[in-house]
Amino acid sequence: MRTSRKAGLLVSTAVCGALALGAAGPAFAATSDSTVPSDSTSVAAPVPGADALAQQSALLGNAGGVLTPVTALVDAVLKADDGKLTEADATKHADAIKAALAKVTEAAPETPAAGALPGPAAADPGTELKAKAAAALQVKVDALIKASLAGDVKVTAAAVQATITATVNVLVSIVLGGGLPAADLPGLPTLPTIPGVAEVPTLPTL
């Protein structure tokens, strides 16, 4: 069987192209693989100062954790007939507030300095202040619940005011007790500091 000259030229061209592609294929694949980033080798960069920021966020969360159950108790008392709560509602609010105050008084673990000998840690003035404020609020809450259950509206009204004031004391003790940055709102007066409370460390800049 005879093959025309034109058909032979086409076959020859196709073979040469296939050989060229076969040689260039692995090189092209290697080049392509090297330029496409792999998800398996990417490493997420950590947020600078993440640990300190997480502690500050936890402090704010504790503040909100106290404010929410206390205001829920106060609202329930004010909306109840003659300011009188049921035993079930009183127990529910009391348990929620007690759990929130327990988180406020949790002391952060002490980290001894490098090379320091183990020993009793010095008392943290900020922690002591928060514990004192939390204990005072617990007393006021107990008095409010007792007055509400008794149905004495005059005593209940005074107990509500005392509870609100004690709640403010807890919030201020959290803000001033160390761990949170100083407020920087223009026009806001400088807040007092507590002697012995460590300043908030400066976080690394981005």
TrEMBL record:
It comes from the Bacteria. The keyword Signal applies. The keyword Signal applies. Residues 1-29 form the signal peptide. Keywords: Signal. This is Secreted protein. The lineage of its organism: Bacteria, Bacillati, Actinomycetota, Actinomycetes, Kitasatosporales.
